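Following the same procedure, the fold was encoded as tokens, giving this record:
***
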Amino acid sequence: MTPSNAPMVMAPAEATGSQSAVLSCSTVGITTLQKRADFLLAARARRQGTSSFLLQGRQRRADETATGIRVGYTCSKKVGNAVKRNHAKRRLREAARLVIPDDGLDGWDYVLIGKSGDTSARDFQLLLKDLRYALRKVHGITNKAQMQ
């Protein structure tokens, strides 16, 4: 509770710029898969396993209305209780936010599936490296030079 004699400091109405203390992170062109049908379509497409997660990827058909890159995240109960599953998905979301805008392809859907223990325990830099590797394999790129 704030004391009644505490000064009220507020930004003036004419202040410019963002006054929010929340860091805003924009993921340009990335949206989240939300419909089960999209997850099932990705499950029938290309996949690449790594030591920390499984990546499923598919190129959308021309008649689909969705645009940009879409990413879904999932962890089964094998990963652990809700706290462990959420922690694994947070790590996968952050890895996708950092890597997929650069290495993902427009018109593709990706699903990242967390693995028991490995997704949460793996060093984050290695997790990013795993995601880059899996994207190259799903896209059918054999070496890094073809990526550019």
The longest helix spans residues 82-103. The chain has a mean pLDDT of 82. The helical segments are 36-43, 82-103, 118-121, 124-139.
